[in-house]
Amino acid sequence: MKTTGAFFERVWSVAARIPRGKVTTYGAIARALGSPGAARTVGWAMRATPSGLRLPCHRVVNAVGELSPEDVFGGPGVQRSLLESEGVTFDKQGRIDMERHFWMP
């Protein structure tokens, strides 16, 4: 893998392309960048996103469609509200309907 900074920038480039109403996973971004074992590093990159980039970070979730810890987006329900406002649906367990909303980078 290249330097962390360069990798983070590549992660942000992929995240910027996630369409409204769709989500992708940390692992899918890592695989798209040719680093299939780097899902955790993708998570670090997403957490380190400069606010000025205005990326749709709320559209990146884990492999089973679970949301980030609530502190990541500033409070309970923020990520879910953002996704629901884009038409993303959830199952009874609170997970995203990945068959319907998954976007492959």
Question: Please, could you describe this protein's structure?
Answer:
The structure is a single chain. Helices cover 38% and strands 4% of the residues. It is mainly α and 105 residues long. It has one domain (4-101): Arc Repressor Mutant, subunit A (Orthogonal Bundle), CATH 1.10.10. The chain has a two-stranded parallel sheet. α2 packs across α3 (39-47). The protein is globular, with a radius of gyration of 13 Å. The two termini are 19 Å apart. The mean pLDDT is 93.
Brief write-up:
By secondary structure, the chain is mainly alpha-helical.
Give the SSE map.
Elements: H1 4-15, E1 24-25, H2 26-32, H3 39-47, E2 60-61, H4 78-85, H5 98-101
Parallel strand pairs: 1-2
Helix pairs in contact: 1-3, 2-3
- The proportion of strand residues reads under 5%
Structural class estimated from helices and strands = mainly alpha
Corresponding CATH superfamily: Winged helix-like DNA-binding domain superfamily/Winged helix DNA-binding domain
- Count of the separate structural domains: 1
Poorly predicted ranges: none
SS field, number of helical segments: 5
Question: Notable features of this structure?
Answer:
2 strands; Arc Repressor Mutant, subunit A; mainly alpha; 5 helices; 105 residues; two-stranded parallel sheet
